[in-house]
Amino acid sequence: MKIEKTDIAKIKDAEELIEYVAINRYDSFENLESDEFQQLPEWIKDIVFILDFETEYEMQGLPTYLVNSTGHYLPETIQSFKRTDNNDIADILVELQDTLASVDLSPDILRNSEDDLNLEDYPEIGEKVDEIDDRLREFIEEKEFWNKVTEYVQRKINQ
What we know:
Elements: H1 5-10, H2 14-28, H3 35-38, H4 42-60, H5 62-67, H6 74-83, H7 87-101, H8 107-112, H9 123-142, H10 145-158
C-alpha cells in the first residue's frame, strides 16, 4: 500500500499515523528524492527520516547508518529531530556531522567512495565517533524520543 495524502488526512491519531507511515514507507518510495516523497508535507517526511534513522541505527549503529543511503539524509534527519523537539539527539548528530567534517568526511563521501572508505580509515576520529555512538545509543534504546515525535505529529494533525 502506498502512502497517500488522502489517507493521511483521514487519520486523526498520531500513533496510528506513525504506524501507517512505518508500515507503508517502503511500498511508497525507496528513493527519497522521488516526486511522491518530495510532495509530502514536511512533518510526514520527518516521520520517515526518523524511522529510517532508527532502523539503520538499531541494525548496526552509526557506521552502518553513515554508509547506507539513509546517511545521505543526515542534515534532514537532524532537522527532523529538532522539529520534533528531540534536541538532545539532534545535538549529538550535529556533533557527529562536525566530527566527520573535521577530516573532510560526510556520509556521501563514505558511501560513494570507490576505495570502500569506512570510519576505520580515520583513526583520528574513531574514538570520538565511538563516544558519540555510545551517547546516542542511550536515547535510541530508551525510545523516549517517540513520545515527542508523537506529540509533534498530533499537533500537526490537529492544525
